[in-house]
């Protein structure tokens, strides 16, 4: 099979880590008889520099016409003073919105061999943890009305959160379908003691749960969820939540796996064309040093094979290769212990390819 993949490398470490993923996927193509055709597009700061805007129309058209999108990361201090509508992050929100990607799947599990890199006490993670965060991606406060105005005490700013029943229903179904292939437990995280949108989430999710009688559903306030993630991460199977809560909790979940450089994500809509990206940013502090961990991006490639192309054996092969390399003790700087030797982005990529 031949697949056209839009390659949006972006800024900072983006080109280094997507480069590693492209190499790994090409190796998979060779081994399993597929052709992955990567077509580069500009987005983020590099697009601002070359075209004046963070998300050129050519990039939107190219992503919509492709079979899937691989994204590195966008942004960096160079573009921090851009006006709001010209910030690199606009490219991400614009692509998610143009492609109708309302679901973000973020698996977070601890590799047994990386227990030492975990920031939690060994007794807390001794039983391991393996959760998927299902985050709503195209609604809520990140897309709501916002602005500046004159308030009672002078100038003020506001952002608004709103969710429709339809938006909650479709993301809730994704969460339950995900749970049905796992431990069948959904925890809906909200702030229903304060927010009206959260109360609507509770009503709608409770209704959707009736379609899945075998699944277990519980609700948790977001402040408690933030606490439980570091107190008892093994509690969670599928964590369902809104755009902003998901953004924050998934970074917390990533940190307890050992490094943000390990976690992939998939953004999906109602078609099979998805966007796959590591959950971290462009890491300008280490860009160009060879210190970036390519694993999150390589595992994002595995998610693309599984969710967009239905190539489960190929995805399994990548995930097994990553685990084998970690079991061999190969470490990038972010997961190496104190005084432990570490390898570069390229060496980690080569080690993974050698296992395929
Ligand atoms: P970040 O995720 O880029 O970096 C946080 C820390 O984690 C840094 O110390 C960095 O060196 C480290 N890190 C991140 N990825 C790593 C990897 N693969 N290997 C090793 N270490 C890694 O977050 P930040 O510093 O808050 O943001 C930097 C820029 O990235 C900002 O401009 C921000 O807006 C942007 N950003 C983009 C995305 C995206 O494109 N999806 C997401 C988050 C942040």
Quick tags:
2 domains, 10-stranded mixed β-sheet, 356 residues, Isopropylmalate Dehydrogenase, 12 helices, 40% helix, binds nicotinamide-adenine-dinucleotide, 20% strand, two-stranded antiparallel ribbon, alpha/beta
CATH superfamily (homologous) name of the largest domain = Isopropylmalate Dehydrogenase
CATH C-level class of the largest domain: Alpha Beta
Strand order of the largest sheet: 2-1-3-12-11-4-5-10-8-9
Overall average pLDDT: 95
Total beta strands? 12
Which H/E pattern describes the elements? Answer: EHEHHEHEHEEEHEHEHEHEEHHH
Which residues sit in consecutive blocks of at least 5 with pLDDT less than 50? none
The major beta sheet can be summarized as: 10 strands, mixed
Ligand inventory reads: nicotinamide-adenine-dinucleotide
Whole-number tally of structural domains: 2
Please estimate the helix content.
25-40%
| Assigned CATH architecture of the largest domain | 3-Layer(aba) Sandwich
Number of helices: 12
Q: What is the straight-line distance between the termini?
A: 19 Å
- Report the sheet-strand fraction: 15-25%
Question: What spatial form do the alpha-carbon principal axes imply?
Answer: globular
By CATH, the topology of the largest domain is: Isopropylmalate Dehydrogenase
Structural class: alpha/beta
């Amino acid at each position: 099979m031949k697949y056209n993949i839009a390659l949006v490398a972006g800024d900072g470490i983006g080109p280094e880590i997507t480069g590693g993923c492209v190499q790994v996927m090409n190796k998979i193509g060779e081994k399993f008889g597929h052709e992955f055709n990567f077509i580069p597009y500009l987005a983020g700061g590099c697009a601002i520099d070359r075209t004046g805007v963070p998300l050129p129309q050519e990039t939107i058209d190219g992503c919509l016409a492709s079979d899937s999108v691989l994204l590195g990361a966008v942004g960096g201090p160079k573009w921090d003073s851009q006006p709001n509508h010209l910030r690199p992050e606009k490219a991400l929100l614009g692509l998610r919105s143009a492609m109708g990607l309302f679901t973000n799947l973020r698996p977070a599990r601890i590799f047994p061999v990386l227990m030492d890199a975990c920031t939690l006490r060994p007794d807390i993670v001794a039983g391991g943890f393996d959760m998927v965060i299902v985050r709503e991606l195209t609604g809520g406060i990140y897309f709501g009305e916002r602005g500046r105005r004159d308030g009672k005490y002078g100038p003020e700013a506001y952002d608004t959160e709103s969710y429709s029943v339809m938006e909650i229903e479709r993301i809730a179904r994704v969460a339950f379908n995900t749970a049905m292939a796992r431990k069948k437990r959904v925890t809906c995280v909200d702030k229903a003691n304060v927010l009206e949108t959260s109360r609507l989430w509770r009503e709608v999710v409770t209704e959707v749960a009736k379609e899945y009688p075998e699944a277990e559903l519980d609700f948790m306030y977001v402040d408690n969820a933030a606490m439980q993630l570091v107190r008892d991460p093994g509690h969670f199977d599928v964590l369902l939540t809104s755009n902003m809560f998901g953004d924050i909790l998934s970074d917390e979940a990533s940190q307890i796996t050992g490094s943000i450089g390990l976690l992939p994500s998939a953004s999906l809509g109602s078609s099979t064309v998805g966007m796959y990206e590591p959950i971290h940013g462009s890491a300008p502090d280490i860009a160009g040093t060879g210190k970036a961990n390519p694993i999150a991006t390589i595992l994002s490639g595995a998610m693309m094979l599984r969710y967009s192309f239905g190539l489960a054996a190929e995805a399994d092969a990548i995930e097994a290769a990553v685990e084998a390399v970690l079991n061999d003790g190969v470490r990038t700087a972010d997961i190496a212990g104190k005084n432990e030797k570490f390898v570069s982005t390229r060496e980690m990529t080569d080690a993974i390819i050698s296992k395929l």
